[in-house]
Structures are given as structure tokens and as C-alpha cells.
Amino acid sequence: MSTTNDIVLDRKPEAPAAAAPGFDWVRLVPLATVIAILTLWWFASTRGWVSRVFLPSPLAVLNSAYQVTVSGFADSTLLQHLLASLGRVFGALAASIVVAVPIGAIIASSRIGRGIFDPVVEFLRPLPPLAYLPLIIIWFGIGEASKVLVIALAMAPPIIIATAAGVRSVSRDRLNAARSLGATRLQLLRFVVLPSALPSIVTGIRIALGAGWSTLVAAELVAASRGLGFMIQSAATFLGTDVVILGIAVIGIVAILFELLMRALEKRFVPWSTHL
Amino acid sequence: MYKLHIDKVTFAYGSPPSAPVLADIDLSIGSDEFVAVVGRSGSGKTSLLSLAAGFLKPTAGRVHIDGRTVEGPSAERAVVFQDDALFPWLTARQNVGFALKLRGVPKPERDRRVNELLAHVDLAASGDKAIWELSGGMRQRVGIARALAADPEFLLMDEPLGALDALTRERMQEFLLHLWQDSGAGVLLITHGIEEALFLATRVVVLAPDPGRVVADIAVDFGRRFLRGDTSRAIKSDPAFVATRERLRDLIELQDFEV
Ligand SMILES: Nc1ncnc2c1ncn2[C@@H]1O[C@H](COP(=O)(O)OP(=O)(O)OP(=O)(O)O)[C@@H](O)[C@H]1O
Ligand SMILES: [Mg+2]
């Protein structure tokens, strides 16, 4: 007994691995990859390896970024295209949260509810949104509503599934604790079920935002007069490869920003997610 | 004085009911009593507490308080859980104030009461910490304060000291005795520790397994001696204490050979 204690007490504190001296060069690999690709692109376009029509130089793309920002492309500036796309995606997000969270909660808490909604969700989930976009255009026309609806349909399944999983995992002890402290059914929902499921719901929203964003751009390729997808599509018709690449870059950067935004929101609003 | 009465209760899990885990339990707890239930793992202690709390419904018999049948959980029977069951989305302070918030107690009054309770469980300085920043013993005290805030007639505790080291556990035992004295609530305590039961309770109930049933119900007064000023070490080495402890151990270990 005392021997064990002595060994523990005599042991010198180990240096934590992270404190090893020197710089961690491996962290620079992603940056090096990006630089290598840009350099390759640069040489390929300026040395005439590839025709400028197919691959304009990075500088040409930057220049067209400036042009599109200042004087616009296809009747709208870059900012207007971007805002049109963002407006659709966040409109659809709001709509799908309002619908999907209650449906997810119903699926988790009632067998009848699960029977009703599960087949619909399971059918919708693997369906590529572009497959049903034409149908929606036939039904609802080519206006804004159709695009928002398609995006919302793409976003709803991940939120429904995540909400259902979150609600199902609510700790029985915590529910009982709240009930024995006097909680009514409504209070249980508001003060225990919702906060327990929230981390899972936020994860669902993160996935939904990714799915919605890619659906949006695809939907705009088909039917829009403004938006990043439309901008790419109409530039392609005139072989405006610089604007096409610009559009792709903006879409990619926005997707990364979404991810960072969601992570920040997660840290800020559900710090208990890792302690449930 | 209130009386919590577990009145000829038989209980079986599942539907249709499987073999009963509790058979014909008759146990009555006054609101001035401290009743400790001991018994081997699986003897039905947690099931018994869940019945008293209203989380489970008896298969036969009923649970009542002064003639009113218990239909479900209620703040008059606050529960302290073995693995604390605190709400990690709330701070320690908010956990303690939960029952008051549910009742719509205005914030200034709530804050006053919560501060009192936090001070009472020796956590005045840690109120604004997140739950995961607290030690096991601190969390248990938050759980106890949270239950006390409901101002219950009965405090039902399932191994509240199970996860603590020996020294902390001893301090918490003394704390529980003072708490019982001050709160005026009746206590039903589930514990693995025979010595703990003996030191704290005014009655020790022994549960035997398969199916769970009461095989002994012994009145003791070591806790009251502590509250009158004896030290816990003196009490626990008292020959009367040791003799009763051995008797209880025999009673529980007897069940081992019965199967
Ligand atoms: N939810 C459940 N469904 C079915 N059987 C259960 C359930 N919970 C407990 N049991 C059974 O009921 C019996 C009593 O369990 P209980 O949890 O009440 O025992 P306990 O005395 O609290 O044990 P421990 O000291 O290990 O906590 C055990 O045989 C157990 O297998
Ligand atoms: Mg138990």
C-alpha cells in the first residue's frame, strides 16, 4: 500500500508531449498544398500550357472579381448575386427549422408520429433535389418560392433526423429530476428536452446548411435571374471562364465560412454539448 | 407530521409484468425520520425509491402521503440521484434555483434563496461555475441543494455519497445529519454502506433480494448522538455501534447463502 504511494509521489512530472521544443512543420502542409496549386495554375495559364479561354490566369480572375464587384455581371454586382443566394439559403433554413424541429420531436416521442413521418423522411433524404426540382417548377412556377422550397426540402431531413436523435437521447434521470422538482409537461419540454436536444439540433443544422448550399447553387443553374449559380451558368454560355472560376471560388469560400460560423455558434450557444 | 406510506406494494417491471422485484413491501416514513435502506445489489433499493418518488407505479398496493395516493412525481418528494442528474446547460446556481423558477418565484427572491442554499452546502464561491467544472462531491452537494430548494416534505436520496472518497464521504455524512435537522424533511436514504446507514439513520431497513422484501427494520439513534455533540469517531467505535453493525452485516450476508 505505502509502496505504491511512494512510487507515485517520487515520480517526476512528465513533460507533456505538446510542449516539445521546435516548430510543428506538418501544420504547414495544407498551406503548402494551396500555394502549390496556385503556382501550378499560374504557370499553366501564363506559359501557354493551357489556352486562356479554358484557364484564365489567377490575375485575370482577380481582375474579373474587381469588375463584377464594381460594375456587375448579368445585371447584378457580385454582392447582389451573393446576397440573392444567401437570402434563399437562410430563408429556406428558417422555414425548414420551423417545420423540421417539431417533426423530429414528434418522431422521437410518438410511435404513431414516427409511423407517419418516417417513410416520408426516409424517401426524401437520399433523393437528389434536382430530381424533383422540375416537378416543383411545374407546380409552383419558376419564382423565388420554388427555389426556396427545393432548398428547404434538402435541408429538412438532416434537421429532422438530428432532432429526433437528440430528443430520444434525453436522459431519463434528468426528466425524472425535473418532474420531481415540480415541472409540468410544457416545462419539461422547454427546460429539459429542448436543451438536451439542442446540441444535436445544431449539428443537424450544420449538415443542413452544407446540403442546402450545394442544392441552392444547383437550383440557380436551372432557374434564376440572380445568384451565384446563375452567374456561373450565364458566364459559361459566353465562355467567361474567369467569372465561372470566380463564382466557384466564392461558393467554396462561403461554404467554409458557414462551417466556421456554425462551429462558433456551437461553442457559444451549446457549450454543454460535450458534457451531456 | 406527514407520513409517506409504501402500503403493501408489490412491483414488477415490464408489461406483462415479469417476476416481481419487490414483494409486499410495507414501509412508513414520518417527516421527522431518517430511514436508511441497505441491501445487496439488485435487491430492489432503487426500485423502491422510484416507487416512493412516483417514477414507477406499483403493480399492487399503493404509495400514499397522509391518505393521498401518490400518482406521480411531485416537489413534495424531491429526489437526489446516484449520478447527480444535474442539468449541464445550467450553472450550479441555476440548477439550485430550478424548482423556484418552475414555480415562477421572482428573480430577486429566487437569488436570495439560492444564495442561502449554496452557502448551506458550502458552495457559495462556486455558484457561477458550469456543472462540468465541479468535483464529484461538489456536484452531489449541488444536487442536494437543488432538491432542498423545492422545500420538500421528503428527501429521497439514492446513494448520494457513493462516488466519494472516504474522507469526503465522512464529512458529507455529518453534513447530511445537520441538513436533516435543519430542513425538517423526512429522509429516505439508499446506501451500500452499512456503517453509513447506522450512523445517519433513525431507522435502518434491510432489504433481501429475489424478490425484494424487508427482513429487518431496526431503530437506532447514533445520528442523534452526533447532533447532540458526540464526535463521529467516538460514535463509530462505540461497542453498541460495532455490535449493531455486525448484526446488520450478518443479516445482509445471510441472504448470500439463501439462494
Ligand atoms: N428498468 C428495468 N427493467 C427491468 N428490470 C429492472 C429495471 N431496473 C431494475 N431492474 C431489475 O430489478 C431488480 C432490482 O433493481 P434495483 O435497481 O432496484 O436494485 P438496487 O438494489 O438498486 O441495486 P444496486 O444496489 O445495484 O443499485 C434487479 O434484478 C434488476 O435487474
Ligand atoms: Mg440502485
Number of helices of chain B: 10
Helix fraction of chain B, binned, reads 25-40%
Total count of strands of chain B = 10
- Average pLDDT number of chain A: 88
Shape descriptor of chain A reads: globular
Could you name the key traits of this structure?
heterodimer; A: 276 residues; mainly alpha; 11 helices; B: 259 residues; alpha/beta; Rossmann fold; 6-stranded mixed beta sheet; 4-stranded antiparallel beta sheet; 10 helices; binds adenosine-5'-triphosphate; binds magnesium ion; MetI-like_sf (chain A)
Description:
Chain A: This is Taurine ABC transporter permease. Chain A: Residues 82-262 form the ABC transmembrane type-1 domain. Chain A: InterPro entries: MetI-like (IPR000515), MetI-like_sf (IPR035906). Chain A: It is found in: Cell membrane. Chain A: The chain crosses the membrane at residues 25-44, 53-74, 86-108, 120-142, 148-167, 188-209, 229-258. The complex is a heterodimer of chains A (276) and B (259). Chain A has a single domain, classed as Orthogonal Bundle (MetI-like fold), CATH 1.10.3720. Chain A is built from 11 helices and no strands. Chain A has helices spanning 2-10, 29-46, 58-70, 78-109, 111-124, 129-140, 144-168, 172-180, 185-222, 228-237, 241-269. Chain A starts with a helix and ends in a 7-residue tail after the last helix. In chain B, helix 4 crosses helix 5 (136-149) and helix 7 (194-200) crosses helix 10. In chain B, the strands form 2 sheets. In chain B, strands 6-7-8-3-9-10 form a 6-stranded mixed sheet, with helices on both faces. In chain B, 40% of the residues lie in helices and 23% in strands. The model of chain B has no long low-confidence stretch (mean pLDDT 90). Chain B folds into 2 domains: 34-55 and 68-76 and 155-259, Rossmann fold (3-Layer(aba) Sandwich); 87-151, no CATH class. Chain B has 259 residues and is α/β, with parallel strands linked by helices. In chain B, strand 7, helix 6 and strand 8 (186-190) form a beta-alpha-beta unit. The A-B interface holds A 171, 173-174, 176-184, 187, 191-192, 195-196, 198, 270-272, 275-276 and B 53-55, 72-75, 77-79, 81, 83, 85-89, 98-99, 101-103, 130-132, 146-147, 149-150, 156. Magnesium ion (MG) binds at residues 45-46 of chain B.
